[in-house]
Design goal:
- The complex is a heterotrimer of chains A (462), B (527) and C (398).
- With 462 residues, chain A is α+β, with helices and mostly antiparallel strands.
- Chain A has 16 helices and 18 strands.
- In chain A, the strands form five sheets. A five-stranded parallel beta sheet of chain A has the order 8-2-1-12-18, with helices on one face. Chain A has a five-stranded antiparallel beta sheet with strand order 14-15-16-13-17, with helices on both faces.
- Chain A is globular, with a radius of gyration of 22 Å.
- Chain C has 398 residues and is α+β, with helices and mostly antiparallel strands.
- Among the domains of chain C are: 137 residues, Gyrase A, domain 2, CATH 3.30.1360.120; 130 residues, Aminomethyltransferase beta-barrel domains (Elongation Factor Tu (Ef-tu), domain 3, Beta Barrel).
- In chain C, strands 11-12-13-10-4-14 form a six-stranded mixed beta sheet. A six-stranded antiparallel beta barrel of chain C has the order 15-18-17-16-19-20.
- In chain C, a hairpin with a 4-residue loop joins strand 17 and strand 18.
- Chain C is globular and about 60 Å long.
- The chains are: A alpha+beta (462), B alpha/beta (527), C alpha+beta (398).
- Chains A and B meet through helix 6 and helix 13 of A and helix 6 and helix 13 of B.
């Protein structure tokens, strides 16, 4: 059986790449380490272009309204809705001043997220290029931004490097509002809300959402892709890249030792895990840059079991920016947050947990730590420990191989985005090894935009 | 008495104001500098707080002073003499130390002792930083172009800047992006494995900021400090003979030699504005002085919210200035000593006392010091940069005695409950006790102690919130955003009123760059 | 003392008559022991000179992938070398520009000792991702002496109590000198008959004593760097930071050189598949390097005339120089290169220099003009391109 291309990983990005390649006439096999499909929801904006191009039929987008519920200290909750007016009213009850600023904040931030959306559906601008077409594209982007108005240009320059705490402190006074919004700014970052770059992360997760909605959409895009014909999927074994004399030759399945050969190998797995086995083929500076990719997992994911269905779609336990900052402080010294940030996301009847900070330590599973963490989270949620199931980044790495258990395969810090992602100068999905490509969350545009990287990579390959 | 009308009145005799005065006077303008305090210098002053002991009250080392200013104003002739600061010793908590010496081979050997690979990485790192400093240097001497404008001048400047960066080539351009965005700890993690080395280096990334070594944005400050030029040698720190006050005096002397007039004990209340134009100043005692232009070297908050009425400025500009961050985070402890302290890690008195001691034994140590400040407390075990000025310039203390200058972080301006005399003393105690833990017996050598909190810095020098850079060096308020978008070219919304202090590009440190660029702008405007 | 002393310092220190020391890799070594270096130089060509070369950086590379690592790093084919062979080789960065040069001694199939002029531990580590190899810095615990000159073999045979005539050029063997285990390699930096002796640092002083005692009847002479410098120029051997800059230290591209530009094309293997800089070197080989490294011999008459013009006899440099001087074409107007090392060869009675010339001007016999300052004025002396080495005695390989 000879293939034109092998794709490692049957997540959204891997499958998207596979299907694009298949549509271009290639014979594609996808190798996936998990036996069964991952039941958890896909978090993030699925670019409509991908849906159209691949004619994704069974895609279900969860667009909850209200999109966030945050408990208030005095009792009751703050519910933020898709309709800006309704949110404004909800906010007015806790701070009239904040309510007055809400609509403008939503508009200004939406404009900036629009810039990101434009950047995400193409490879990152190559600022070092001499190619006139690429230069024209960059010029076009610059013009687009400038046409958004002076305020947008200034906002972009000011907000991109800022901390989400500073951004929110500039606008609002309510702790619970700032905590709820700021929380998404620290997703998958080993930084607190007062750290620079978290405002960018906040914007990143706003891409694809309408104004006033600051949580990414949830969907079943991976499941929908799995149901499509056109590519072969082989499950059950981790695959390692094979390369010789600077060219990729295929993969070897770890369990059976079977080698599958193909001239093109595309990996949606994290760059470090992908490239480590073929490090000898890489020049030392590139290998060093790969080693230097910061992917410090800090998120424990899992599930919550409740007796009945809760009323909320997303429950956010982040009472203030200071709460989040203190949670981060613990992580700096290698400890799980004494008072963690917990978010419960309900999709299709499943209640999924996102907990920060649970820093990756050394790749071993620690039973005591695991127990303590579950207890803590259960306490925060006011449930029994047995109702909480969590997987720490250490466990994630052990089971799935993502380096340091980082779901995005590399933190979305300002030095690891655009032309710097995954390795500076190698942001167009290629690697120095001929025929070996990357297409996962570790590439542009990063995690939380399922399928975007997959599509961009596929278009580079064909 | 005929009211003299000056070409320019400069409010504030800090080093930037003096530089502006000197350049304008050199161009033949009649210049008057008005300084509130009894002496010029602002935060670059040397004062004999206790008889015989000269304290470099606030700033204490020089390296960023622009070479073109030293040349243009002939400062060596006016008394500027910079003595080399040749080493840094970092005591470690286990009794060991990390030292960086002037000699390359010695330093290599010392690093090798801690980590053979770091010893080699150090050279590579040094080379990279050299290139980075070279790459960024042109930006220090340029007026920031405005990317929101369509004016041909701005577009040309932006294109030139773009071309300059593209010309760096891949490796250096990427390094520059990293330096602009990363935390100093993360940036150094890519190069080194020795924790105390990373801690000491990243400490220069937190100076004057309200950030910790793990905070993104500190790698930029690391680079900013790396650009120190001394006799053409990048990144060589020195101590001015007579302290940093001597730097200010040299600039003042040069300005006077060019014909500028400098008045001390002359506090200005506000700027006189008529028909949207600045026409002079009003002193605190009510006197009015006239000038063609007025220049403020004060920080942006004082310049715009104190010297002017808010109805003289556009609303969005006022909001931008109000939003400009100043959070002071540093304090100073100046001591008169009977004898030099002996540090446990390197017992005795030796050449190490002619250099600096850095109390930064580990990244966690410095980060914890920051944690306390985040929540409104001063660090119980703070980061410190210690020098003994009398060891480099014996004239700073009576023979056989010494002065000790301790720069401390963190001491937040917004302290929980506010700064009181008791809190000041407690802060001083924390500093002294920490030094004692690394140099037992030190406390018994203290003859006199002066503790300066950010509130003291603000009260004495005027620097808002005691921020030593006249506004934080954070990416979102740098370059064309400093101090406010659209107003980064040293002019202000009030015609004939200019700004020349560290709150403008390129920011703080004793650079003089702002003062010079402002003067050049004024001269270009034909004023 | 802030610089290190070598393991031989207890012996070399007292020998210094003029306290003429210099730095090498953070160590103090003698520039010359006697008040002038002349006798020390002549010992190299006439009897035997003994040099302390301990400051070299030395690394022990061991393990199943040791040869693979070295083959990845250097340009020569290490995998094909035999046990007991010593390879002289440069190594390059990814653009084919030379980082350093040194030797690799094949101690056994999985054990190699590498020498380098600059610290190289980190570079070896960076290249070893995914390889089963151990890299140890043995610089400080290994001392080394270099014995060079026509009597070198005789002295060493007596000291080691065995016949060394079968030890071929650039081969090594282990031996015992007065019971001290040593490695003897037939290598050196003088282009003459010579050997380097490698020993564990604690045994350095006894080794020195043994060699001095054995060699004194044969005229063994401790010699310093000044003498070595003249000999190495006669031998046409490069010196890093003088004749070329490590690409790791170069500030601009023009300061970098490839091995092909340095006359080291013979060290760049064509039968190896993957090593740092390979693609760039292959391409450069196809187009031909733009520069050549050659010898220059200054024409005596032209030199004499320059001095006679100002009424002086010719002044020859008493020591080799290491500054760079421009070299012009025959007309004296267009610069075609530069000479980086030079001096008078007392043996060959010639004023020689090592130069980098643009390829079109580098053919043997080409006449060029080399700049010389005579009584504060810049003049040019005629010189001819001479193949390297200047001196290549039979005994070197015999």
């Amino acid at each position: 059986m000879s293939y034109d291309a092998i794709v490692i990983g049957a997540g959204a990005n891997g499958l998207v790449t596979a299907h694009y390649l298949a549509r271009a006439g290639k014979r594609v096999v996808v190798v996936e380490q998990r036996h069964a499909a991952d039941p958890s929801a896909d978090i993030g904006w699925v670019p409509p272009r991908v849906v159209r191009d691949l004619e994704l039929r069974d895609l279900r987008l969860e667009q909850p309204d209200p999109w966030l519920t945050a408990p208030l200290s005095g009792g009751g909750t703050l519910e933020l809705s898709r309709e800006i007016g309704r949110s404004t009213e909800a906010i007015r009850r806790i701070s009239p001043g904040d309510a007055a600023k809400w609509p403008e904040f939503c508009q200004r931030v939406r404009t900036l997220a629009g810039v990101l959306e434009k950047l995400y559906l193409a490879p990152p601008p190559d600022i070092e290029t001499r190619d006139p077409r690429e230069l024209a594209r960059i010029g076009g982007l610059a013009l687009y931004v400038r046409r958004l108005g002076k305020q947008a240009v200034i906002d972009l320059a000011r907000i991109l490097p800022m901390s989400v705490a500073e951004l929110l402190d500039d606008w609002f006074e309510s702790d619970v509002l700032k905590g709820a919004l700021g929380a998404v700014g620290i997703w998958h970052l080993k930084q607190g809300p007062r750290s620079g770059g978290t405002a960018f992360n906040f914007l990143h997760h706003h891409a694809g959402s309408p104004a006033g909605v600051f949580r990414p959409a949830r969907s079943n895009v991976t499941q929908a892709l799995e149901g499509m014909k056109g590519v072969e999927v082989r499950r059950g074994s981790r695959a390692t890249v094979l390369a010789k004399n600077g060219r990729a030759t295929g993969v070897v399945l770890e369990k059976s030792g079977e080698a599958i050969l193909a001239p093109i190998v595309v990996s949606s797995a994290d760059p470090r895990a992908t490239l480590h086995p073929v490090a000898i083929e890489l020049d030392p500076e590139f290998a060093r840059a790969v080693d230097n990719i910061k992917a410090r997992g800090v998120v424990a994911r899992g599930t919550l079991t409740l007796e009945g269905a809760p009323s909320y779609s997303s429950l956010c336990i982040a009472p203030s920016l200071e709460y989040l900052e203190r949670a981060y402080d613990d992580a700096k010294y290698g400890r799980d947050s004494a008072a963690p940030y917990v978010e419960v996301q309900r999709t299709d009847g499943r209640l999924e947990l996102h907990v920060q900070y649970v820093p990756y330590t050394d790749g071993t599973a620690n039973v005591q730590r695991h127990q303590a963490l579950q207890q803590k989270v259960a306490h925060v949620l006011g449930v029994q420990t047995s109702q909480v199931k969590l997987q720490s980044p250490d466990e994630e790495e052990l089971q799935r191989g993502a380096t340091e258990g980082h779901l995005y395969h590399g933190e979305l810090t300002l030095d690891q985005i655009l032309f710097m992602r995954p390795v500076p100068g190698w942001s167009r999905y290629r690697t120095p090894i001929g025929g070996l490509y990357l297409c996962g969350a570790g590439t542009h545009p990063g995690g939380g935009i399922p399928g975007a990287a997959g599509r961009n990579a596929a278009r580079e390959i064909v | 008495m005929a009211a003299k009308r000056y070409d320019a009145i400069i409010i504030g005799g800090g080093h930037n104001g003096l530089v502006t005065a000197a350049y304008l006077a050199r161009a033949g303008k009649s210049v008057l500098v008005l300084e509130r305090r009894p002496r010029v210098g602002g935060a670059a002053v040397t004062e004999e707080i206790f008889p015989g002991f000269k304290f470099t009250m606030f700033s204490y080392v020089v390296s960023l002073l622009r070479p073109e200013i030293i040349r243009d104003l002939d400062l060596p002739r006016h008394g500027l003499h910079i003595l080399p600061l040749e080493s840094t010793v970092t005591p470690m908590e286990n009794g060991d130390y990390l030292a960086a010496w002037a000699d390359h081979d010695e330093t290599r050997r010392e690093l090798y002792r801690h980590s053979p690979r770091d010893a080699e990485a150090y050279d590579e790192y040094g080379r990279l930083m050299h290139f980075m400093a070279q790459a960024v240097k042109p930006i220090l001497s340029m007026v920031p172009p405005d990317p929101t404008s369509f004016s041909p001048g701005d577009l040309v400047a932006l294109l030139k800047l773009g071309r300059h960066f593209r010309g760096l080539g891949g490796e250096r351009l990427h390094a520059l992006v990293k330096l602009m965005t990363m935390s100093s700890a993360d940036f150094l993690d890519e190069w080194f494995e020795t924790d105390v080395l990373k801690a000491t280096k990243s400490a220069s990334g937190i100076i004057g900021t309200f950030l910790g070594p793990r905070s993104p944005g500190t790698a930029y400050v690391l680079l900013h400090h790396y650009m120190g030029e001394l006799d053409g040698v990048f990144r060589a720190w020195g101590f001015a003979k007579g302290g940093t006050g001597a730097v200010s005096e040299a600039i003042a002397s040069s300005a006077r030699a060019f014909g500028a007039e400098i008045r001390c004990d002359a506090p200005v209340a506000r700027v006189l504005v008529k028909g949207g134009r600045a026409i002079g100043v009003v002193m605190e005692n009510g006197d009015e002085l006239r000038a063609n232009i007025v220049v403020s070297s004060l920080d942006p908050r004082r310049t715009f919210l104190q010297l002017l009425d808010s109805d003289q400025l556009p609303d969005d500009f006022v909001s931008d200035i109000k939003r400009f961050k100043f959070r002071g985070s540093s304090g100073k402890v100046n001591l008169a000593l009977d004898a030099l302290p002996s540090f446990t890690c390197m017992p005795g008195i030796g050449r190490q006392h002619r250099g600096a001691f850095s109390i930064s034994p580990s990244l966690d140590y410095v980060e914890r010091a920051y944690d306390e400040a985040k929540y409104g407390e001063f660090s119980r075990r703070p980061y410190m940069d210690i020098v003994f000025p009398s060891m480099i310039d014996p004239g700073m203390a009576p023979p056989g005695k010494h002065v000790m200058s301790i720069f401390v972080q963190y001491a937040p301006y917004h302290l929980n409950g506010g700064w009181s005399d008791a809190k000041r003393e407690a802060f001083g105690d924390a500093v002294v006790n920490t030094v004692e833990s690394f140099a037992p017996g030190f406390k018994s050598m203290i003859l006199h102690r002066q503790v300066i909190t950010p509130l003291d810095i603000e009260r004495i020098t005027g620097l808002s919130e005691g921020n030593i850079f006249a506004g934080e060096l954070a990416l979102h308020q740098l370059f064309f955003l400093r101090p406010a978008p659209g107003w980064a070219k040293f002019a202000t919304p009030v015609r004939n009123f200019y700004q020349c202090g560290s709150g403008t590009h390129p920011g703080g440190g004793i650079m003089g760059a702002s003062g010079r660029l402002a003067a050049l702008r004024i001269l270009k405007d034909g004023k | 003392m802030s610089l290190r002393t070598t393991p031989f310092h207890a012996r070399t220190g007292p020998l210094s008559e003029g306290q003429a020391w210099r730095r090498w890799a953070g160590y103090v070594v003698a520039s010359s022991y006697e008040l002038s270096h002349d006798r020390e130089y002549h010992a190299i060509r006439n009897s035997a000179a003994l040099f302390d070369v301990s400051p070299l950086y030395k690394y022990l590379v061991t393990g199943p992938d040791a040869a693979r690592l070295l083959d990845h790093v250097v340009t020569r084919n290490v995998g094909k070398a035999k046990v007991g062979q010593v390879l002289y080789t440069p190594w390059c960065d990814n653009d084919g520009k030379q980082i350093d040069d040194g030797t690799i001694s094949v101690l056994n199939e999985q054990t190699f000792r590498m020498t380098a002029a600059d610290p190289t531990l980190r570079w070896l580590h960076l290249n070893s991702s995914g390889l089963n190899v151990a890299i140890e810095d043995i610089s400080e615990r290994t001392a080394a002496l270099s014995l060079q000159g026509p009597s070198a073999r005789a002295i060493l045979q007596i000291a080691a109590e065995r016949d060394l005539s079968s030890l071929k050029y650039f081969r090594l063997t282990s031996a015992k000198i007065r019971g001290i285990p040593v490695t003897i390699s037939r290598t050196g930096y003088t282009g003459d008959l010579g050997y380097e002796v490698w020993v564990d640092a604690p045994q350095a002083v006894p080794l020195w004593d043994a060699l001095i005692e054995t060699g004194t009847p044969y005229g063994i002479t401790p010699a310093g760097m000044l003498a070595l410098d003249v000999a190495r120029i006669e031998a046409g051997l490069l010196l890093i930071e003088v004749d070329y800059f490590s690409s790791r230290h170069a500030l601009i591209d023009a300061q970098k050189s490839s091995p092909l530009e340095l006359g080291l094309a013979w060290t760049v293997a064509t039968d190896k598949v993957r090593y740092n800089g390979q693609a760039a070197l292959d391409a450069e080989r196809r187009r031909g390097p733009s520069w050549q490294f050659t010898g220059l011999t200054v024409d005596w008459d032209s030199l004499e005339r320059l001095y006679a013009d100002v009424g002086l006899p010719p002044r020859l440099p008493s020591q080799a120089w290491r500054t760079s001087v421009p070299v012009y074409d025959r007309g004296g107007n267009r610069q075609v290169g530069y000479a980086t090392s030079g001096g008078w060869s007392p043996l060959l009675k010639r004023y020689m220099a090592l130069a980098h010339l643009e390829t079109p001007s580098a053919a043997t016999g080409t006449e060029v003009r080399m700049e010389m300052t005579v009584e504060h004025r810049r003049k040019q002396a005629t010189a001819r391109v001479t193949p390297l080495p200047f001196f290549n005695p039979e005994r070197k390989r015999a």
